[in-house]
Amino acid sequence: MTVTIDGKLTAANLMTELQDRVRALKERGTTPGLAVILVGDDSASAIYVRNKERRAADLGIYSEVIRLPDTISQTALIDEINRLNQTPTIDGILVQLPLPAHIDETAIINAINPDKDVDGFHPVNVGRLWTNQPGIVASTPFGIMQLLKAYDIDPEGKRAVIVGRSNIVGRPMAALLLNQHATVTIAHSRTKDLFELTKTADILVVATGQAKMITAAAVKPGAVVIDVGMDRDENNKLVGDVDFDAVAPIASAITPVPGGVGPMTIASLMIQTVALAEARANG
Ligand SMILES: Nc1nc2c(c(=O)[nH]1)N[C@@H](CN(C=O)c1ccc(C(=O)N[C@@H](CCC(=O)O)C(=O)O)cc1)CN2
Ligand SMILES: [Mg+2]
């Protein structure tokens, strides 16, 4: 029987656990603080940011959203980040991506104090991850690891194939699985014989942005299939990078879209914001 991995339920369970940690922090006089910077008026980004705000409020985390026009200069944006870097009550800072084309994403990420970089995108946190040191980890791959744990899927000794090499998903995902003793391969748009490779995976993580590109022929029977895609099909319906209906019957476990990986992203952000506040409270 194939297990459908429920990200909504897992995220809700983790949020219930997190409530106790927030309460304990507040009893000690520390309120976790999250600052979210939203540049421009991308409608999807606006929704994600509103959801982050709501989730923080539900948990009793202080959050502030700094909404800036898409005409803002890179220097002014960095000034704003510097102000937040120096605000002691703010534990986590994130800049919602994507940014307008005139702003250099790398320069912005690099301006965030690595110890407040709650997205885990700063090179210091990337270095910590790849050297298996404690640090903040990008929310989506962090959330995928929480899903694997919740469903008792142990990566140790498994062959993991990740399709996609982005800084936000593919690369950190590879490091996390490697740190949990999987044998990891990263595939990408120039990988030869891609589906021959994906067919060798015990754990297949797909983050390509190509609707339903993974069919049953690309999956090993019994594989765990994690779909990070959020694409639109010909009817404008939200679908993943995996053809769920075709792949589910042969997988041992699979994430749906929506309701799989997506809900774990914001839950992971909250978990890591609280962890940063705990570090502040512990001096
Ligand atoms: N600074 C960041 N920017 C972006 C990140 C990020 O982690 N940090 N990730 C994405 C956007 N994102 C959060 O920011 C995000 C994406 C998707 C979901 C989600 O819950 N998806 C649902 C479906 C939602 C829908 O119906 O459209 C799901 O898959 O079930 C949450 C957060 C890019 N930018
Ligand atoms: Mg999903």
| CATH C-level class of the largest domain | Alpha Beta
Overall spatial form: globular
State the low-pLDDT regions, or none: none
Assign the CATH superfamily of the largest domain: NAD(P)-binding Rossmann-like Domain
Beta-strand residue percentage = 15-25%
From the N-terminal CA to the C-terminal CA, the straight-line distance is: 48 Å
How is the largest sheet built, in terms of strand order? 1-11-8-7-5-6
Radius of gyration: 19 Å
Helicity, as a percent range: 40-55%
Helix tally equals 10
How many domains? 2
Mean residue pLDDT: 98
Order of helices and strands: EHEHEHEHHHEHEHEEEEHEH
In this entry the ligands are: the ligand Nc1nc2c(c(=O)[nH]1)N[C@@H](CN(C=O)c1ccc(C(=O)N[C@@H](CCC(=O)O)C(=O)O)cc1)CN2, magnesium ion
Largest sheet: 6 strands, parallel
CATH architecture of the largest domain: 3-Layer(aba) Sandwich
Helix and strand content put the structural class at alpha/beta
Under CATH, the topology of the largest domain can be stated as Rossmann fold
| Record field, number of beta strands | 11
Binding site for NADP(+): 164-166
GO biological process, one term: tetrahydrofolate interconversion
Protein name: Bifunctional protein FolD
Pathway: One-carbon metabolism; tetrahydrofolate interconversion
